[in-house]
Amino acid sequence: MKRLLLVPLLWANVAHGTPAEDYRQYCEQCHGLNRIGATGPALLPESLGRIKPDEVRQVIRDGRPASQMAGFAAQLDSARIDGLVDFLQQPPASPPTWDAQAIRASHTVLADLSQLPTTPQHHADPLNLFVVVESGDHHMDILDGDTFNVLDRFPTHFAVHGGPKFPPDGRFVYFASRDGWISQYDLHNLKLIAETRVGLNTRNLAVSKDGRWVLAGNYLPGNLVLLDARDLSLVKILDTGSRVSAVYTAPPRDSFIVALKDLNEVWELAYADAQPRFEPRRIQAQDVLDDFSFSPDYRQLVATSRKAGGGQVIDLDSGAVVTDIPLAGMPHLGSGTYWRRDGHWVFATPNISKGQISVIDLNTWALIKQIPTLGPGFFMRSHVNSRYVWSDVFFGPDNDAIHLIDKQTLEISHTLRPVPGKTAAHVEFTRDGRYVLLSIWATDGALIVYDSQTLKEVKRLPMNKPSGKYNVGNKIEFAEGTSH
Ligand code: HEC
Q1: What percent of the chain has pLDDT over 90?
Q2: Could you tell me which CATH number the domain at 3-89 has?
Q3: Where are the domains of the chain?
Q4: Ligand 1 first shell, C-beta below 6 A
Q5: For 336-360, how does the pLDDT look when each residue is reduced to its tens digit (9 = 90+)?
Q6: Which end of the chain is more exposed for a tag (fewer CB within 10 A), N or C?
């Protein structure tokens, strides 16, 4: 179909009060032509995937407090609001695109790196800083991990998505937003350096072990976008023919590993060469493997697989299936963690449909134990100096609880309820493992700092839905117990 020719006709056909006309009149100035976003976020089916239609309806009717999004109850009756809710769930009449030209045009350099000092311009330990994402009002905090004072707080693009990532020296932090904005922030100078919009709907990013490349994975368009880590300028676009679920860096392999949503393949992009070609090595799989974790040496991949009825272990060099691990419910292997127990590596994974944690031996891949919990969980974290693995109960009536599992006995030793009735989730340790930072996921939420030995509260910082927190040292060392 020749869409361009249709445009004048479409304009003629939109009668006053149709959802398309209401969008143009009331929404487009902020949400953009073709709904790809402008000052307001993108409103495409992919963007709204995690939001229930009832919430979309309520936002249009009542707006969002403390934001540019005002309610439209006075202008639009409920039938017209319902019309808009349906309209936003459908793809736009002409499919939105985002090509190399659009990426280059979006690229903004905000500070000249050559003019900035190359040493920390603050007194905190640069390897014990925390980057904290406040998802309630789309801000980021840079926290001193020794004093727990906030060194900087700045606005981000709408909905930071996936974990922020660091180069090996920890100077910068790179992060992605739901609508495809990649940002580079200088942790020495506490300044934003550059931004590029790489897509319309982005999952996450990874930084190469040598700190030279930033790779972003997109749902829309389904591709990978490679940027130069010095200033986020575009290097290459790789079409995947599939939505990209996630990208990872595999330090011992000098490569990126890519999880795909619509193909029975896992991709590897090597970057060891001085001028890497970034030609994908396509590892064939028997199933869609879009949620996975790695063995500590990155030789093997542990993926959630429906066909395997749980998990499947794949050898990354040969591509062969090592074994299936039957696990009931919906294990979320991507947010599992590993540690040493009696000299063996073990791996534990939460389950997003069942209140249980599965512990697996990383040598034999045998299931060692199923630990019953108060409900399905999402995040698990530990530290080499911690006796416990901290695991949240993310779903269900006990989502205010946190289990502390003894790493040796595999029993729940403590269950904390930091703020009864409010979701407690996502912990991260200081670099030395002495303190644990935990989030209360509420608009009037908080970051709570615990002594990891005595379990006493040390400090509480009020925050607006502090969804994730990331310790620079633990991340750049790919420390045991943290997320990768
Ligand atoms: C003045 C600018 C502006 C106008 C006009 C506007 N919006 Fe928004 N809208 C925003 C901003 C900014 C946000 C993000 C609010 C936040 O921080 O949560 C938003 C958020 C939303 C969201 C929630 C998106 C999400 O992913 O959480 C929906 C849905 C929405 N707007 C729909 C509409 C519709 C439909 C219209 C027209 C009837 C409209 N908006 C008009 C600025 C605007």
Answers
A1: 88
A2: 1.10.760.10
A3: 3-89
A4: 26-27, 29-31, 40-41, 43, 47-48, 51, 56, 59-60, 64, 67-69, 72, 84, 138, 158
A5: 999 999 889 999 999 989 999 999 9
A6: N
